[in-house]
Amino acid sequence: MAIAETFVARVFGRAPSEATSGPHRDSRRRVPVWSWVTRRCRIGARRDSSDARRRPDLTRGHRAAREARCFCSLRIKEPTVIKSHGYAAKHSFSRLKLFDFDREEAGADEVEIAVMYCGVCHSDVHQVKNEWSNTVYPCMPGHEAVGKVTRVGANVTRHAVGDIVGVGCMIDSCRSCPACLAGFENYCEGPNSWLATYNGPMVPAKKAPTGENMYGRDNTMGGYSDTLVVKQDFVLKIPAGLRPEAAAPILCAGVTTYSPLRHWKVQAGDKVGILGFGGLGHMAAKIAKAMGAQVTVFTSTREKLDEAARLGVEGVMEDDKKALAPLKASFDFILSTVPQKHNVNPFVELLKRDKTLVAVGALEPLAPINNMETAMHRKSVAGSLIGSIAETQEVLDFCARHGIGPDIEIIPIQQVNDAYDKVEDGEVRFRYVIDMATLADEVKD
Ligand SMILES: [Zn+2]
Ligand SMILES: [Zn+2]
Fold it and tell me: What integer best gives the mean pLDDT of the chain?
């Protein structure tokens, strides 16, 4: 045995090949081997040392050590990568096209997923075009992914190979802030906020108070790809009653509308208004109706009044003053799904005293709120962002139980750029879902 190997064998009580084989526990020391390695590696991983102490399960510490070529890096196994393919944009002005990249194989707590379907969300379009000024390129969108589990890490207990699972907007969070501890990862207050499924983390290192990146990744690649590797806690179970392609949009559009309906305690018999009748709006209408609410949708597109009738809800043109006048002070809750700056004041007038209008579509300033109206009747205008992992599972189960799901149009990945144009023009009826099997037509290897 070589000198270095003898040393390692003494410290670990086993041959070095065993020490590099995974996050198992050393029965003699009763300390996770990787934890010891991570602490030992602080010379090489200075930048990450505080977080490595708190989260020894993270692989980032090991990566940092390897890059720094510190003492311990000699014994750290290089992660095996999965050659992956997807559709990405290289610049804000370029279209999405085939992009080859590597994903690290599943770690002990991770699940590997062969993506079957991925929904097209309006925020994908915003992100690809850098409309929020935070896009990191190449940008591979997709946060409504459903697929089959192909491999699980050693510690995974929640999912098994062959399960149909979903991945929504988040793939990790800090897990230690008040929001995370309360089960609301979507409001994570950690230095980097939550780790978005693509273009993550939400707060990159350069904007974090500490200048660090606890996730070790500054540009995650989303579900417009053939594979995803995700921590088991952030992987959702798709109930048997939901078709995988129909489940995909529930992972963002569904939970984004379900979460505020639940938080503001919408009940059977409540009068609920939905402003905007696209991808989010039609899911909101279906979910609120399934909750037993009396639903009215406000739309700017006359043809969508027929769609409202088809769903069994009231449809009103949002600029029809004659139709709006008798609705004043009659709603228990209004959800605005309009995806850009808009004037909510005419709809705040429709709320009863003490009730709330929640905007989920526009992540930007709204037109100024008329506080005379809100003060005179103690009304609120609020916001809400996607939903927690628990709420995402809840809405999937809710949709399966009530036999509801989004109206979808399945497209091959090769049509995704045209789909984006239609999403921007508001032509969609109502959610595009990409059949990821069509990616194979372009992949050579
Ligand atoms: Zn989305
Ligand atoms: Zn957190």
Answer: 85
